[in-house]
Design a protein that fits this description.
The chain has 104 residues and is mainly β. It has one helix and six strands, in the order H-E-E-E-E-E-E. The chain has a domain of 31 residues. The strands form two sheets. A four-stranded antiparallel beta sheet has the order 3-4-5-6, with no helix packed on it. A two-stranded antiparallel sheet has the order 1-2.
Length: 104
């Protein structure tokens, strides 16, 4: 029984066909590929953006002999100070989105 105990404590033997030391990696000769530069297309220049000029308050009023008259109505929901935009067949408020159609 002592022999069996010794066999269990022995390290496992490795097969002789495989070497225990690792082989260093084989370096392949470096083949340099020619560096290809991407073909650049000529950039088209965009025209500069045209900034809209803000219209002043004088575009919303008309000056008469009697005084000032409003050219566009105020919004019914928002109250004085919020003019409605004129879209030909309707007026619309830019603040709340209220729309009032013109009478034909």
């Amino acid at each position: 029984m002592a022999e069996k105990a010794r066999e269990k404590t022995k390290p496992a033997e490795k097969p002789a066909g495989k070497p225990t030391a690792e082989k260093p990696p084989v370096e392949k000769p470096a083949v340099e590929k020619p560096v290809e530069k991407p073909v650049e297309k000529p950039k088209e220049k965009k025209p500069p953006k045209v900034k809209k000029k803000e219209k002043g308050a004088h575009t919303r009023y008309k000056v008469d002999e009697k005084g000032l008259t409003r050219l566009r109505p105020y919004c019914e929901r928002c109250g004085p100070g919020y003019f409605m935009a004129d879209h030909g067949d309707r007026y619309s408020c830019g603040h709340c989105g209220f729309t009032r159609y013109k009478r034909v």
